[in-house]
């Protein structure tokens, strides 16, 4: 992966930036990018300008390679050079610059026997589900969670959009989550509906607030967080309502840009041309 040699050095050290004891964190899908899409050059330029004033990071549910695709610039700069903190898989895979802060695993947490019962239940439930289309990859195992999709993660972009619309009325995901919550109450799991076609299942407390353990209050008095799934049940909700967090409820990357400019560039913002 090509590196921009000046990427890291063009920012002051974190504690010498203008806005003190503060970090600004962003969700990825629909906050910095369209769902599964790439960040546009204007939002990357704004993030770079913001980073000169205050340390920044992102928290996304996907893995780091996917986030590299979505948040990397045209030059292919390592995403860990574009943000001070990178929190992949909701923070279970955490980096401060190039330095790994740790990782955790779902199976380690609940054990293989319980995990198998859970996956068997999911596959049986989806097999009996009557929805307009089904594709493939109904359960995706990730380090810190399982991602369950009634339509299947192999669905095309068009099929994803159609399912999201259908699900708003049919509430396929919400109904399934309610059933699972009752069935597996003893496992202490959290269910989070995010994105267009799926929901995440993970141990309680392993939502996006997991990252706060890496951002001690003594060092980071103020934590800003921008997220689009800010309604209860959405995957940004726990961060949005957390007492340590200054919330920014946004509905699109354009909305994020307007809010960032209004909040952090009171003097006005002019995009710097590279
Ligand atoms: Mg989002």
TrEMBL record:
Binding, Mg(2+): 27, 29, 228
Q: Which organism is it from?
A: Pseudovirgaria hyperparasitica
Give the record's subunit note: Homodimer.
- This one is known as Phosphomannomutase
A single BP term in Gene Ontology? mannose metabolic process
Specify which residues bind alpha-D-mannose 1-phosphate according to the UniProt entry for this protein: 36, 142, 153, 160, 198, 200
Q: Which family does it belong to?
A: Belongs to the eukaryotic PMM family.
Query: What does it do?
Result: Involved in the synthesis of the GDP-mannose and dolichol-phosphate-mannose required for a number of critical mannosyl transfer reactions.
Q: Which residues form the active site?
A: 27 (nucleophile), 29 (proton donor/acceptor)
- Which pathway does it take part in? Nucleotide-sugar biosynthesis; GDP-alpha-D-mannose biosynthesis; alpha-D-mannose 1-phosphate from D-fructose 6-phosphate: step 2/2
Q: Which Pfam families match?
A: PMM
What lineage is this protein's organism placed in?
Eukaryota, Fungi, Dikarya, Ascomycota, Pezizomycotina
Where's it found, cell-wise? Cytoplasm
Please provide, alphabetically and separated by semicolons, the GO molecular function terms listed in this UniProt record: metal ion binding; phosphomannomutase activity
Signal peptide boundaries: none
- Catalysis performed (reactions): alpha-D-mannose 1-phosphate = D-mannose 6-phosphate
**Keywords from the named record:** Cytoplasm, Isomerase, Magnesium, Metal-binding
Q: Main subcellular localization, coarse class?
A: cytoplasm
CC annotations in GO: cytosol
């Amino acid at each position: 992966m090509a590196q921009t040699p000046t990427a890291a050095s063009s920012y002051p050290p974190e504690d010498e930036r203008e806005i003190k004891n503060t970090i600004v964190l962003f969700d990825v899908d629909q906050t910095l990018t369209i769902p599964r899409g790439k960040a546009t050059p204007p939002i990357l330029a704004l993030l770079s300008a913001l980073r000169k004033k205050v340390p920044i990071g992102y928290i996304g549910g996907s893995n780091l390679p996917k986030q590299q695709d979505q948040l990397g610039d045209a030059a292919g700069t390592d995403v860990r050079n574009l943000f001070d903190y990178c929190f992949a898989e909701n923070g279970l895979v955490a980096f401060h610059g190039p330095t790994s802060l740790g990782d955790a695993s779902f199976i380690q947490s609940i054990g293989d026997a319980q995990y198998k019962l859970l996956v068997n239940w999911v596959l049986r439930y989806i097999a009996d589900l009557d929805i307009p289309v089904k594709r493939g990859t109904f359960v995706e195992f990730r380090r810190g969670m399982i991602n369950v999709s009634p339509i299947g993660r192999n669905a095309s972009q068009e099929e994803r959009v159609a399912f999201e619309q259908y699900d708003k009325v049919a509430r396929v995901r919400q109904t399934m989550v309610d059933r699972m919550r009752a069935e597996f109450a003893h496992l202490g799991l959290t269910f989070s509906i995010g994105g267009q076609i799926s929901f995440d299942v993970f141990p309680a407390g392993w939502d996006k607030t997991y990252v706060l353990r890496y951002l001690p209050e003594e060092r980071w008095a103020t934590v800003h967080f921008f997220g689009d799934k800010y309604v209860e049940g959405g995957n940004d909700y726990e961060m949005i309502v957390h007492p340590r967090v200054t919330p920014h409820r946004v509905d699109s990357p354009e909305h994020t840009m307007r809010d960032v400019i209004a909040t952090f560039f009171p003097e006005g913002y002019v995009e710097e041309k590279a």
